[in-house]
Amino acid sequence: MGTGDTTQSTSSFSVPNPFDLSYGYGPQSYDYRFLYNLTLLYQPAYFRSQHGLTGHLLGGWSIAPIFTAYSGAPLRVTGPSTCSSTWGEVSCSSSLNAWENAVLTSAYTAGNSAHYGVTSSGSFGTSGNPPTSANPQLKGTGINLFADPNAVAAQFRPLLPGLDTNAGGNGVLRGLPGWNVDATIAKDWLFRERFGATFLFQFSNVMNHVRFADPTLSLANPSTFGVITRSAAGSTTIPLYTPRQLEFGVRVHF
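The structure corresponding to this sequence follows.
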């Protein structure tokens, strides 16, 4: 929890209320409530001595997978207008620069997972509408954080001076969770007692599993509300998403 984590030396960010810093108190951007990392190393003991042709083929193998899972980071819902100095912010070019969130008016039950085939029937989330035979000009993919973006948007209202006492920190909702599996497979080959080689195969994103970036949630831009358009860009906490990659290497030892 905090009042907004950012590098202040070059920042254009402003607190929501300079007269009371507690108005900006809330979750920090790096507040992942759940992080899990599992590392394994398996080296079968069979044919370790690598005697004979069978021993050379079946011995010396090892596998080391790394599994990572994480819950969603705080996700902001900005108000219907750019920063209008609601609380007296200074040098504020937009609501994104003041850590202001729209106010959730009822219990949130929409979750935080990607929904496919979403076609918005209202004004929110329409840029994600997929093309149909009746509307072939549409370019969206149908992927949205919400099954009904209009219903979710209706749960929020702008931050009101004199009524609200907290701007929500870095987010009143939670973004997309994710997981990933990397692995290294190695084969140690003994040619002689003191001479051999290790063949390494390193896989990034073994499952070729896509990880989406959190969408923009702005009441000022209803057409993009909840629409998922890109993959995760990575951070200091969560690795960058890339499609499956393989690196091969050989290390000779003597």
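Strands lie at 35-39, 61-70, 74-75, 103-104, 156-157, 173-174, 178-192, 195-204, 245-253.
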